[in-house]
Amino acid sequence: MVKKAFLFSGQGAQYPGMGKDLYDKFGEARRIFDKANEILGWDVKEVCFTDANGLLNKTKYTQPALFTTTMAAYYVAITHGITADAFAGFSLGEITALVASEILSFEDGLRIVNLRARFMDKAAEVTKGGMSAVIGLSPEDVTEVCKQFDEVIVANDNCPGQVVISGKIDEIEKISAALKAKGAKRVLPLKVSGAFHSNLMQTAKNKLAIELKKFTFQEPTTKIVSNVSADYMTKEDAINFLPQQITTGVRFRESINRLIADGFDVFIEIGVKKTLVGFVNKISKDVKTFNIEDSQSLKHTIEALKE
């Protein structure tokens, strides 16, 4: 029996034009984008579809824009009969997963994303951090090199041969040579505005924890795997992990391995590009992967799942 998991894109995958095909062709997507405009009070459609003012890569706009796009893609997918037995999201994408699992409503999910984005953006302005992907080393090897520096940590364990470091921007720049000396094939700076998933985001974590008391959480109706624990979440876990996730790493490889161990053999990335299913393909050669970000990829996935 096929067991499907949906994966929801995280920050960094955004691009001008994302979601426009969905908005133009599906009423479900229009409903989500229109509701997001109403809640946010700024034109999320313009930022996603044209980005004429160059706002899309600014964290306080990136996160609500990506969340709205992935939620639109999710509702289009389920309306067309594509459902999943579990969810996992990458960083920001985990909040999409919380809505999909019905722990949060879409409206509350968007409001939480908006708060998270503003708090993280402010922390990034103050702390002056950055992130880089390290290709060709194990998490253990990268951790060993990071110990030589005061403000750099392993932030994300994406897949075999790729981890992400996070920390003060001057140290992120200095550590590159040491990582290459250790055997890294490449060290690639990421297009992010701060040291996400590190202690430099502590003020954002603290502020979000306070704000979450204003929202209603429910028990999940579908399994959801946490970035923090790489295990299935309860309602209480979601409340505790949402702030914690801002300062701790994304255990994506472990999360996927947990799902594979439980028999999941089809992974569908919902939202933007194919970044996450690219990681999955490096984690296991024994699973099938698809993505849904527009009408064409939706059609392809529907046809492939029939086979």
Strand order of the largest sheet: 7-2-1-8-9
* Cα Rg: 18 Å
The average pLDDT score comes to 96
What is the number of helical segments per DSSP (H or I, 4+ residues)?
13
- Fraction of residues in helix: 40-55%
Shape: globular
Strand content: 15-25%
SSE order, one letter for each helix or strand: EHHHHEHHEHEEHEHEHHEHEH
Low-pLDDT residue spans = none
Gap from first CA to last CA = 13 Å
What would you call the structural class? alpha/beta
Total beta strands = 9
Specify the biggest β-sheet. Answer: 5 strands, parallel
Structure report:
- The chain is α/β, with parallel strands linked by helices.
- The chain has helices at 20-25, 27-40, 44-49, 59-79, 93-100, 106-127, 139-146, 169-182, 202-211, 235-247, 252-261, 275-283, 295-306, and strands at 4-8, 86-89, 129-135, 152-159, 162-168, 186-189, 223-225, 266-270, 288-292.
- The strands form two sheets. A five-stranded parallel beta sheet has the order 7-2-1-8-9, sandwiched between helices.
- Helix 4 (59-79) packs parallel to helix 5 and helix 5 packs antiparallel against helix 6 (106-127).
- The radius of gyration is 18 Å and the shape is globular.
- The model has no long low-confidence stretch (mean pLDDT 96).
Protein topology:
Blueprint: E1 4-8, H1 20-25, H2 27-40, H3 44-49, H4 59-79, E2 86-89, H5 93-100, H6 106-127, E3 129-135, H7 139-146, E4 152-159, E5 162-168, H8 169-182, E6 186-189, H9 202-211, E7 223-225, H10 235-247, H11 252-261, E8 266-270, H12 275-283, E9 288-292, H13 295-306
Parallel strand pairs: 1-2, 1-8, 2-7, 8-9
Antiparallel strand pairs: 3-5, 3-6, 4-5
Helix pairs in contact: 2-4, 2-6, 4-5, 4-6, 5-6, 6-9, 7-8, 9-10
